[in-house]
Design goal:
The complex is a heterodimer. By secondary structure, chain A is of the alpha/beta class. Chain A folds into three domains: 14-184, Rossmann fold; 204-365, Rossmann fold, CATH 3.40.50.1220; 379-555, 3-Layer(aba) Sandwich (Rossmann fold), CATH 3.40.50.970. Chain A is 38% helix and 16% strand. Chain A is built from 24 helices and 20 strands. In chain A, helix 2 packs across helix 3, helix 4 packs parallel to helix 6 (96-104) and helix 17 (379-389) packs across helix 18. Chain A starts with a helix and ends in a 25-residue tail after the last strand. By secondary structure, chain B is α+β, with helices and mostly antiparallel strands. Helices cover 29% and strands 39% of the residues of chain B. In chain B, the strands form two sheets. In chain B, strands 5, 6, 7, 8 and 9 form a five-stranded antiparallel sheet that branches. In chain B, strands 2-3-1-4 form a four-stranded antiparallel sheet, covered by helices on one side. The longest helix of chain B has 13 residues, at 55-67. Chain B is elongated and about 55 Å long. Classes of the chains: A alpha/beta, B alpha+beta. The interface between A and B is medium-sized, with 29 and 25 residues. Bound molecules: thiamine diphosphate and magnesium ion (MG). Residues 452-454, 480, 482-484 of chain A line the site of magnesium ion (MG).
Chain lengths: 573, 175
């Protein structure tokens, strides 16, 4: 039979590999950037990235943990899902910390892991790891692709699940035999998820219960969590709070959901929150939680948590409501939709004058405080300087430890989505790679990564990305030659037995930066700080500044473990 | 308190693992789970018997079940008019002297002998858990060589006195 030449061409072009289908699906999902690292099981995928003129770029990290934290930082700042590719076995297991971190902090990620060929799954093949088994407890959902016809649908579905409802990480495990299969190119990607229909719109009856209570209340407090940022509801929150004159406490992850430093802002609540914020919750008679999950680092001892308050809780995840705190007014909804309905209610506020006066008085009497040295540098003062020199407008990422708490306390965020930190999992090594993702999301924005000397050393190999992608991230090391937060707990709760928390030697971070071809700076004296920050922030390119801070400074005030919100220590000097 | 919960789930890879893993991780105390097909292709039913300490913990359990992407519906049927069944296979020692006696005994329970050997009988009994347990305790003195139970499976009755059973799905969705 003679084949028509045109027909033949058509048949050929309709044949693709599983990897090409994946690339197409990513393009269709509007992906801008993929963070990844190659290896055996994803070689067909990497070949497809090479072969196709993709509409997204690929950023090569130096460790898969770097890829996934960068994807988290990107997602947090852009509001779009972060996408990661890693190979099977060790590549995939290197992602676990980041996947868990994203699960805890509701960050949308779609993570592709390579898998050994289907024929050898289950035989302990080279670089085989059971990623479905390993990631089931730490993902919103996961898939192994066992039929190539499902691939486009699974990718489409994964992006939907990751980004809707309460966002979270979704893993797609792709056997090499699937990614290299040659197949036709006409599979559907429609999906049907009868078990996944997040409730977005609030029950209006429940909403009016909140405003009814507000009319009766004398001591209301609003607790603003990351849910407000995730649903893009900061304007609605501002309006609601100002209409009713409700004082606002922000969670660690919710910083920026309401402008820090504003008249009605009491600052952060929780273990290292302000005295005013914590006692306000303790004394409140009505506590309205929007988009926070009453984490134990916020609540302290639950027995003493808001003992006199009627609690209203708005959350898109019904399972968070009533999980830790007894809730009188439960509302399952997206924060923005709930606030929209709240804004439609008539404003008929109770008399909060005495309450607001009292809180103002507390803020005056018990502000955040610190001791000022000059050499070494006082860390809190350094954060204030960074705030000033960046006009309070930088995107700030942090690692985990004392510096993280000082950043949360002393860098008030007036804008949403400028704050990137690891809250639920408290992942050291998060801050620096997260800044890489943040800078990619906002290429023209000043991005500052505040890291400890401990945590920075967990993922600093990603300095290579700063260089290769020419990303002007400013890495500020708050260098106390210590695992400062551990040292603080040992000082306070273990009679100064500093077991393995003091570094006797750190690398020369300036030379280290320079060895990556990056500008390195060091400041040890407070008088040099303003100029150094100006120089670094205006420098056209990445900078690493080693700031020698005082080792003995502790983060205060504090709710000691097991204590209630009204039992803070270190409230005053 | 003991509760009987039925989850309707989409039959997808790893669904049982996903759900039992979650229950275990969140420290829920599961007495039995039975899983079976429903009349709709691709949809299964899971029946859980759980021991929970209080109402709040029960609410968490149903919410966490509902939160699973594959779970379509969760019903707590404990307080409803329900039909519950369990199946047990019991291999019991039977000699020439005791065989007839055991046969008479089990016929009162409408249980069947499904296998006979020289020195044992294998009995199948179906019914409410109390009935199954009662027969097992009567057989115990003869010497039980092997025993297996399916776990409970349950169904709300077609006719519900007063109001119908509540659908926790909609309760949790609207608070
Ligand atoms: C991966 C990981 N390992 C251990 C810890 C426990 N941990 C919490 S804070 C901290 C010290 C961090 O030291 P550093 O990065 O220097 O920050 P600092 O507290 O000194 O500001 C440690 C070890 C953690 N949070 N994450
Ligand atoms: Mg340190």
């Amino acid at each position: 039979m003679k084949v028509n030449a045109n027909q033949e061409v058509e048949v050929k072009s309709n044949l693709v590999t599983g990897s090409d289908l994946l690339v197409q699906a990513l393009e269709k999902a509007g992906v801008e950037v993929v963070f990844g690292y190659p290896g055996g099981a994803v070689l067909p995928i990497y070949d497809a990235l090479h072969r196709n003129d993709t509409s997204f770029k690929h950023v090569l990290s130096r460790h898969e943990q770097g890829s996934i934290h960068a994807a988290e930082g990107y997602a947090r700042v852009s509001g779009k899902p972060g996408v990661v590719i890693a190979t099977s076995g060790p590549g995939a297991t290197n992602l676990i910390t980041g996947i868990t971190d994203a699960m805890m902090d509701s960050i949308p990620l779609v993570v592709f892991t390579g898998q050994v060929a289907e024929q050898v799954i289950g035989t302990d093949a080279f670089q085989e790891a059971d990623m479905i088994g390993i990631t089931t407890p730490v993902t919103k959902y996961n898939y192994q692709v066992n039929n190539i016809a499902d691939l486009p649908r699974i990718v489409n579905e994964a992006f939907h699940i990751a980004t809707t409802g309460r966002p979270g990480p979704v893993v797609i495990d792709i056997p090499k035999s699937i990614s290299e299969t040659v197949t036709i190119n006409d599979y559907e990607d429609d999906f049907y998820l009868p078990g996944y229909q997040p409730t977005v719109y609030p029950n209006p009856m429940q909403i009016s219960k909140i405003t009814d209570e507000l009319s009766k209340a004398e001591r209301p407090v609003l607790l603003a969590g990351a849910g407000i940022l995730l649903s893009g509801a900061t304007e609605e929150l501002k309006q609601f709070v100002n209409n009713w004159e409700i004082p606002v406490v922000t969670t660690l992850l919710g910083l920026g959901s309401y402008p820090g430093g504003d008249n009605l802002s009491l600052g952060m609540g929780g273990m290292h929150g302000t005295y005013t914020a914590n006692t306000a919750i303790y004394e409140s008679d009505l506590l309205i939680n929007i988009g926070a999950r009453f984490d134990d680092r916020l609540t302290g001892n639950l027995q003493h948590f808001a003992p006199n308050a009627k609690v209203a809780h708005i959350d898109i995840d019904p399972a968070e409501i009533g999980k830790n705190v007894k809730t009188a007014i439960p509302i399952v909804a997206d924060a923005k939709q709930a606030l929209n309905v709240l804004l439609q209610q008539e404003v008929n506020r109770g008399d909060y004058t005495k309450w607001l006066d009292k809180l103002k008085g507390n803020q005056k009497k018990y502000p955040l405080w610190y001791d000022r040295g000059d050499n070494p540098i006082s860390p809190q003062w350094l954060i204030e300087q960074i705030h000033e020199k960046s006009n309070g407008e930088a995107v700030v990422t942090t690692d985990v430890g004392q510096h993280q708490m000082w950043a949360a306390q002393f860098y008030p965020f007036k804008n949403p989505d400028n704050w990137v930190t690891s809250g639920g999992l408290g992942t050291m090594g998060f801050g620096f790679p997260a800044a890489i993702g943040a800078q990619i999301a906002k290429p023209d924005h000043l991005v500052i990564s505040l890291v400890g000397d401990g945590g920075f050393q967990m993922t600093l190999q990603e300095l290579a990305i700063l260089k290769s992608q020419n990303l002007p991230v400013k890495v500020v090391i708050l260098n106390n030659d210590a695992l400062g937060m551990v040292r603080q707990w040992q000082e306070t709760f273990y009679e100064k037995r500093y077991s393995h928390s003091l570094f006797s030697e750190n690398p020369d971070f300036v030379k280290l930066a320079e060895s990556y071809g990056i500008k390195g700076m060091r400041v040890s004296d407070e008088k040099d700080v303003p100029e150094a920050l100006e120089e670094a922030f205006s420098y056209d390119g990445p900078v690493v500044i080693d700031c020698r801070i005082d080792r003995d400074t502790c983060v205060y005030p504090m709710i000691a473990p097991g204590k209630g919100m009204h039992e803070m220590i270190g409230v005053t000097k | 308190m003991k509760r009987i919960i039925i989850a309707t789930v989409q039959d997808r890879g790893g669904v049982l693992n996903r759900i039992t893993g979650m229950l275990n991780r969140r420290q829920f105390n599961i007495e039995s789970i039975s899983v079976g097909a429903s009349d709709v292709r691709g949809i299964s039913k899971m029946t859980f018997v759980v021991e929970v300490s209080d109402k709040q913990k029960l609410e968490q359990l149903t919410k966490q079940l509902n939160k699973q992407i594959d779970v379509i519906k969760v019903l707590d049927v404990t307080d409803k008019a329900i039909v519950t069944r369990e199946l047990a296979l019991v291999k019991v020692v039977a000699t020439n002297q005791t065989r007839a006696e055991i046969m008479t005994l089990i016929s009162a329970f409408r249980a069947d002998v499904i296998d006979i050997s020289k020195d044992s009988l294998t009995i199948q009994v179906t019914g409410k858990p109390e009935k199954v347990d009662a027969l097992i305790s009567l057989l115990r003195p003869y010497g039980i060589k092997d025993l297996t139970k399916t776990g409970l499976t349950a169904f709300p009755r077609g006719y519900q006195p007063e109001q119908g059973y509540s659908e926790l799905n909609s309760v949790s969705a609207h608070g």
